[in-house]
Amino acid sequence: MSIRIGILGYGNLGRGVECAVKQNDDMELVAVFTRRNPQDVPILTAGVPVYPVDEVAGHQSEIDVLILCGGSATDLPVQTPEYVKYFNVVDSFDTHAKIPQHFARVDEAAVEAGKVAVISVGWDPGMFSLNRVYANAILPDGQDYTFWGRGVSQGHSDAIRRIAGVADARQYTVPVQESLDAVRNGETPALTTRQKHTRECFVVAKEGADCGRIEQEIKQMPNYFADYDTTVHFISQEELNEQHSGIPHGGFVIRNGCTGWEREHRHVVEYRLKLDSNPEFTACVLAAYARAAYRMNQEGGSGCKTVLDIPPAYLCRQSGDELRRDML
Amino acid sequence: MSIRIGILGYGNLGRGVECAVKQNDDMELVAVFTRRNPQDVPILTAGVPVYPVDEVAGHQSEIDVLILCGGSATDLPVQTPEYVKYFNVVDSFDTHAKIPQHFARVDEAAVEAGKVAVISVGWDPGMFSLNRVYANAILPDGQDYTFWGRGVSQGHSDAIRRIAGVADARQYTVPVQESLDAVRNGETPALTTRQKHTRECFVVAKEGADCGRIEQEIKQMPNYFADYDTTVHFISQEELNEQHSGIPHGGFVIRNGCTGWEREHRHVVEYRLKLDSNPEFTACVLAAYARAAYRMNQEGGSGCKTVLDIPPAYLCRQSGDELRRDML
């Protein structure tokens, strides 16, 4: 019998989950819920209904895990504690500083409902967190590094689009190659913000806009750009559409540590992702943890979990015997 | 209160565990057990007793986790099911093909004793297995690659030493750079054994030995060398001691997969280890899983586990709150 999946929110992430469910033959998509008019939301999977989001509670008996594909700013803080009353849920809440608060609220509701919620699933937080935790547990005497990119930052692209005279924009976060090489080589430099990443911006200016002013406003923007070496390229909307429509991302989690009685040996632990599509990869992680949420709840588990709380075997279709034989 | 660790077997791995325990301030080394005469086993930690191995059962009340540092060929198949009768244990059993059988025997004894055993801990099996499992669960439509090295293979070094006329030898396993580059770049080539690794041998010949014959015997040795491009360098014992006394190792676990409705996006997931000391890194992984074994047993758990069964948070000194705040 398949794990019956529902998707709430059908943007890039929701569509990615739909694709991921198709790849997992123990899962079945049974419904999509949207805030838009369902007739305006054509999905990819033939025969699967699209419902208005306010009908979701009525479908409790049809869905094993509801995957929440809303945003972290305003959607998930409300949705995850609400929908865990009815379903096992998985979300990709990624506002690092607010995870403890989100966890506490979701945990209370999940325990009360006897459901499992897995929050902050994806690659950072998510797979990057796992790799930080494993490497820190193994090498207590060491130094952590995270480099992001080369990849599109939606937040930084949005910030550029809010500048007067900007029609469209795409921003790439890029690791500083020299710093990355040093760290991958086992060195443990102290790196400033500027030494870790550069920011590369492709901007479409409105007709008649002052490009010099736009460039200055970008480069001086506090938090987003001021602490980085930033380059700005003005291009046409056509070029932006043709060359920069993808959503690639990725990065590196590296821990360099010492062992030995006199700290005489050095070790480099590196995890790297190179992703053509940030939302589709995130969606794949959500699908794997939906399987875990389902299993934990089947075994009587409830409450809020993160990737740190879940045994790796729970993500897999294979039995423990098969995993030990084929994967260990 | 510290987790009280015992070490059984004091070779390179046992000494590595001793160093790892020193780095973990929630752990304390309380005893070392050896098959040798304890007076001939000077350990690094002041004030810690060394006992004959046949006295180990008498120290049950002093030790929370016994870390078994014997070999997989003959020691661990006997030791792990035996000592789990008295202690929570962790081992580094690494004969992949015999893991299911080892698991079954250890599980039976561990359940009977109400203790936790964690088997096959290290980096392969161990961290590499974890990364294979996570990447497979996330990207069901993909291809796995494992490259080992550049690093010393003890088994291959021993095989060379058994050839007539060889005084000493050290063998390095080396990934084929061209294949590694292709895979890291997202390609999914079908690679033969020869296309994945080369073997580099440093050999000290006995006086008067026929180096040409030794080289041929190495290169034609079935399983060990015949399927690889092998290079043989004859060097002096002094040079071997000076240049090749370390035990470095490492490697890469890579999964390349597709996502999207039409498989239109590609992703590369890569885990890499670069280790100055294979036994010391393995020992660090053993120490982290000793913490997990202790905690699981404290919570009433028993039976045989592998790295695939253990939530990552159990490896950490930090509480769940701290991990969510600082590491997620």
How would you characterize the overall build of this protein?
The structure is a homodimer of 328-residue chains. By secondary structure, chain A is an alpha/beta fold. The first copy, chain A, has 11 helices and 14 strands. Chain A has a 7-stranded parallel beta sheet with strand order 3-2-1-4-5-6-14. In chain A, strands 8-9-10-11 form a 4-stranded mixed beta sheet. Chain A has a 3-stranded antiparallel beta sheet with strand order 7-12-13, with helices on both faces. In chain A, strand 10 (197-205), helix 8 (211-219) and strand 11 form a beta-alpha-beta unit. In chain A, helix 1 crosses helix 10 (278-298) and helix 2 runs parallel beside helix 3. The first copy, chain A, is globular, with a radius of gyration of 22 Å. The mean pLDDT of chain A is 97. Strand 13 (265-275) of chain A pairs antiparallel with strand 13 of chain B, so a sheet runs across the interface.
